[in-house]
Design a protein that fits this description.
This protein is mostly helical. The protein is 28% helix and 6% strand. The chain has eleven helices and eight strands. The protein has a two-stranded antiparallel ribbon. A hairpin with a 5-residue loop joins strand 3 and strand 4. The longest helix is centred in the middle third of the chain and has 18 residues. It is globular and about 70 Å long. It starts with a helix and ends in an 11-residue tail after the last helix.
């Protein structure tokens, strides 16, 4: 693709995907620029709901509490799992993901080869943003409402209740189940229409549009990211444009079992019998009988990954460098990541039950190494990869 047709392809993509929300143009310095139209009435309600802590049992937790706009709609703290519940002190079970760039996630399915793909949440159980929004209102460790009726009762006392009736009907609060569905629909509309959820204005986006160059370290990191023999990251996190020139999402929506270490900072792990098995439970129940899927989690987008404070589904690492070191040294230096038993043997893949450890990915680079071999990346190459991943952070400002 040439420098002349790249911006046009980006503009075409956004016009076709978000024509009812934004007008996108290509600015001389800032790549794709979103000129936001007014949000629809439903999306305006969704914005108010998103920031409303009064809809929680504690009165202190809103969607934005765990999905902070200032942190790419991910947590603004370094906790492995967030706190919620009726008193605000109940720990969750998984690291909270970002809400950015979810609007193109396909519904969960098995592909032609029988591999799982798509779906929202780390286990893909939600088919839409509206469905994803349901559980936090009711989960005991999140907003902790006893029922959908309780959520709707609080909604009816909110400052925007009259606006909710105006949009969804005067009698909407007399139909609690329908009102709750309208609430989650409004949240979905907000996430789909608000440009801040899909900015596409990182340094890498501008690089793809031939607006800024990457420096040498970033280019080296990109090459390592794409190299099938080295980082091999692009195998699951494609870095090239998609159909009709769409900006890369840095996920193929597939699932992988990485065998990450158990995280003692999650209170639930104090129970030796507790395991989070992703696709086959405990949150998702329809695939519980498919043992080959146990321990697999959805591949996330790497956009804004450098802004995150914890990594992987259990938040076991708090530095991006350590996450990359784990990828390439997991099999060559397992003693760095896993505990030893009483006999001194390294307990590899200790957050996966023994009967499912054969599910862990050990065949694709960089996981195709054995103990004592050289890792796929050196310390210097990891540093270059970190610098490249930082180019995926939204809001890049061109230096004048």
């Amino acid at each position: 693709m040439t420098s002349q047709d790249q911006p046009g392809a980006v503009a075409h993509f956004f016009r076709t995907q978000f024509a009812h929300v934004c007008i996108f143009a290509v600015a001389s310095l800032h790549g794709a620029l979103c000129l936001a139209a007014e949000l629809s009435p439903a999306a305006q309600l969704g914005r108010q709901i998103f920031f409303d802590a009064s809809l929680s049992a504690s009165g202190r937790l809103s969607c934005a509490s765990c999905h902070d706009p200032a942190h790419a709609y991910a947590p603004g703290n370094g906790l492995a799992v967030q706190l919620g519940g009726a008193d605000g002190n109940m720990a969750g079970y998984r690291a909270t993901p970002s809400l950015r760039y979810l609007e193109h996630t396909p519904a969960f399915r098995f592909d032609e080869e029988g591999a799982p793909n798509g779906g929202i949440n780390r286990d893909g159980r939600a088919a839409s943003l509206a469905e994803q929004a349901e559980r936090p209102f009711l989960a005991p460790h999140e907003m902790a409402n006893a029922s959908t009726d309780e959520v709707v009762e609080k909604l009816g006392r909110s400052p925007y209740a009259a606006q909710f009736r105006q949009v969804f009907g005067d009698a909407i609060f007399a139909k609690p189940q329908q009102a709750f569905r309208r609430l989650t629909h409004a949240l979905q509309q907000y996430q789909q229409e608000e440009p801040d959820f899909h900015r596409y204005d990182s340094k890498y986006d501008l690089y793809l549009a031939n607006k800024v160059p990457l420096d040498l370290a970033e280019l080296r990191g990109l090459a390592l990211f794409n190299d099938e023999r080295k980082g091999n990251c692009a195998a699951c996190h494609p870095s090239v444009r998609g159909e009709r020139g769409a900006p890369p999402l840095f996920t193929d929506f597939s699932y992988d079992n990485l065998g990450v270490p158990r995280n003692a900072r999650i209170p639930a792990t104090a129970d030796a019998a507790y395991f989070d098995l992703g696709l086959c439970g405990p949150d998702r129940t329809d695939l519980a009988g498919k043992g080959a899927l146990c321990g697999a989690f959805k591949v996330p987008s790497l956009r804004n990954v450098a802004t995150r404070q914890v990594f992987f589904h259990n938040g076991v690492f708090d530095k991006l460098t350590d996450a990359l070191r784990f990828y390439v040294r997991r099999d060559t230096h397992p003693q760095e990541w896993y505990p030893r038993d009483k006999r001194g043997k390294v307990q590899k893949f200790n957050d996966v039950p023994a009967r499912y450890r054969a599910n862990v990915n050990t065949t694709e680079a960089p996981f195709d190494r054995r103990r004592g071999m050289a890792p796929a990346l050196t310390a210097g190459e990891i540093e270059d990869m970190v610098k490249f991943l930082a180019t995926l952070t939204d809001g890049y400002q061109v230096q004048q």
